[in-house]
Amino acid sequence: MKFLKKASTRPRSAKRGRPASQKPSTSAASAPAPRGDKNALKKIESVKKQHGSLIFICEMGDGSKKRFSRAEAFSRWPSQVFKFCEETILGLLEEGNSLSP
């Protein structure tokens, strides 16, 4: 024999009290960035010509050194790359080097 629940004749009342708090998100996007972000550029140390292309050697936020192609460096950090190139070229000109091809 099955037992049936008797329907309540009382209307449901809204619960009162503190609103439910949201659970903290555990996604990587909401996690705080660690100190020394490995993708953050600390400084451009040097530039080299390799197989006809420019390669930028950069110190990253976590202290590691990475090599980036000219295109990738310009797309990630355009203002820092321009500043580095400007300082390098001005330094060469002050030393008396010519920049003609």
TrEMBL record:
Source organism of this protein record: Caenorhabditis remanei
Biased composition annotated in UniProt, kind: Basic residues: 1-18
Start-end of Low complexity biased regions: 19-34
Region annotated Disordered, chain positions: 1-39
Listed name of the protein: Uncharacterized protein
